[in-house]
Design brief:
By secondary structure, the protein is an alpha+beta fold. The chain has 17 helices and ten strands. The strands form three sheets. It has a five-stranded mixed β-sheet with strand order 1-2-8-5-3. A three-stranded antiparallel β-sheet has the order 4-10-9. α6 crosses α17 (347-364), α10 (180-203) crosses α12 (220-234) and α15 crosses α17 (347-364). The chain is globular, with a radius of gyration of 21 Å. It binds protoporphyrin IX containing FE. Protoporphyrin IX containing FE is lined by residues 59, 66, 88-89, 100, 152, 229-230, 233-234, 237-238, 241, 279-280, 283, 336-338, 342, 344-346, 349-350.
């Protein structure tokens, strides 16, 4: 990469290149790995952290707070007092540790692997619907959005008759093209729906996550907040990754060929593409609770701090030739699922969904192709990175 000096260092979280972090973030990694910049989009100053080891140190240190109920927290704008209870992603210890401890064993590898037949069914049913509908369409709406919402509905044991309602509202909530009010209404509809499940299962406990959370001591509101968080955290993220993985393989026939020649590479491919796209970068936003030494700098108490996970996952000291997609790299040490106490609880669910999509999609639709070049796709620039639509034919 050519090195031009930073003329007026200003931070932007906007993603400009679908295939990589903004140039300024890469320059920061080389020239000022831990530094304070203006962040005009938020009218704040922000400390950015760009080297892999520093981002991990920061995410692993609870003096960098995730507690959005604090008015000084950079994500306080999105804080909602009601859904906060149970939303472990926006809590600090000891509250966070108690609630996370209560849900942890729902996400063991064994439990997640047991989801395989259901996920295969959801992927196959989505492809059946694609085939029944003709020979072209938008893969985001045909596959990427429905599969993760059905998986979360399944995790919460949402009755099959309500999957349509759940899926429709999950899709509206995840659609960044829609007005904010419409998305909020969909989010509330889901929370209200989960509240009904919580009340029913408090009366008549079943063999499901919600019932077990209530039996383990969760309050009504905590159980609602947790069910809601699983959807918020697990739907759009996984959906975006499904679209990006499929897009990459359609755009790079050489990579697709590698997987066809050796399907055992699928796991490594999923890991490498998680690293490569690192779609949930805003997960690295924190508030410094005290003066903290990091990367040779002192970050003062009260500072907004942004761990640039996307840039960290391209750190050449950890990932040689970081801009190359290499399915044999062994990239499992990436931080696309975060790191430390808040590391993604649903990561093995997301991995399994991606693996199953790759196992089934190209086998069932061998002629799948992009209808427009990647340069014409509309990418999401903020928040979770992804594609608005992926027009394909099969
Ligand atoms: C490719 C898909 C996914 C990506 C890239 C992703 C990424 C992340 C990241 C970066 C964090 C850490 C946020 C932070 O440090 O503040 C996180 C947390 C979390 N994720 Fe995921 N996630 C994905 C899928 C899922 C799924 C499928 C679920 C649930 C079924 C899920 C549930 C959660 C939860 C509950 C947390 C909060 C954990 C805590 O605060 O203790 N995620 N995720």
């Amino acid at each position: 990469m050519t090195k031009t000096p930073l003329v007026k260092p200003e931070f932007s979280a906007k993603r400009t290149d679908p295939y990589g972090p903004p140039t300024i973030h890469r320059q920061l990694q080389v020239e000022s790995p831990v530094t304070e910049l203006d962040w005009p989009e938020t009218r704040r100053k922000v400390w950015t952290v760009a080297k892999y080891e520093d981002v991990r140190a920061m995410l692993g240190d609870t003096r960098f707070s995730s507690d959005r109920s604090r008015p000084e927290h950079p994500a306080h704008v999105a804080y909602d007092e009601v859904s906060h209870q149970g939303a472990i992603i926006e809590m600090d210890p000891p509250e966070h540790s108690v609630l996370r401890g209560r849900i942890m064993n729902e996400f063991t590898v064994k439990k997640i692997n047991a989801l395989r037949p259901r996920i295969e069914q959801f992927v196959n049913e989505s492809i059946d619907a694609m085939l029944a509908s003709g020979n072209e369409g938008d893969l985001v709406h045909l596959l990427s959005l429905p599969v993760p919402s059905l998986v979360i509905a399944d995790l919460l044991d949402v009755p099959e008759k309500d999957h349509g309602f759940f899926q429709k509202n999950a899709e509206i909530f995840a659609d960044g093209n829609l007005p904010q009010d419409e998305r909020k209404a969909a989010s509330r509809a889901i929370a209200d729906y989960i509240a009904v499940l919580v009340d029913e299962r408090t009366e008549n406990p079943g063999d499901d996550i919600i019932s077990r959370q209530i039996q383990a001591g969760s309050t009504r509101q905590e159980a609602i907040g947790l069910g809601h968080l699983l959807l918020i955290a697990g739907h759009e993220t996984t959906s975006n990754m499904i679209s990006l993985v499929v897009m990459t393989l359609l755009d790079r026939p050489d990579l697709r060929q590698q997987l066809e020649d050796d399907p055992k590479l699928i796991r490594g491919a999923v890991e490498e593409l998680l690293r490569y796209f690192t779609i949930a970068e805003p997960g690295g936003l924190r508030l410094a609770l005290e003066d903290i030494e990091l990367g040779g700098q002192t970050i003062p108490a009260g500072s907004t701090v942004f761990g640039l996970a996307n840039t960290a996952n391209r750190d050449p000291d950890v990932f040689p030739n970081p801009d190359e997609i290499d399915f044999k790299r062994g990239a499992r040490n990436h931080i696309a699922f975060g790191f430390g106490p808040h590391q993604c609880l649903g990561q093995n669910v997301a991995r399994l969904e991606l693996i199953i999509v790759l196992e089934i999609l190209f086998e069932r639709l061998p002629n799948l192709k992009l209808n427009v070049p990647v340069s014409e796709l509309r990418f999401k620039e903020y928040s979770n990175f992804g594609i608005h639509e992926l027009p394909v034919s099969w």
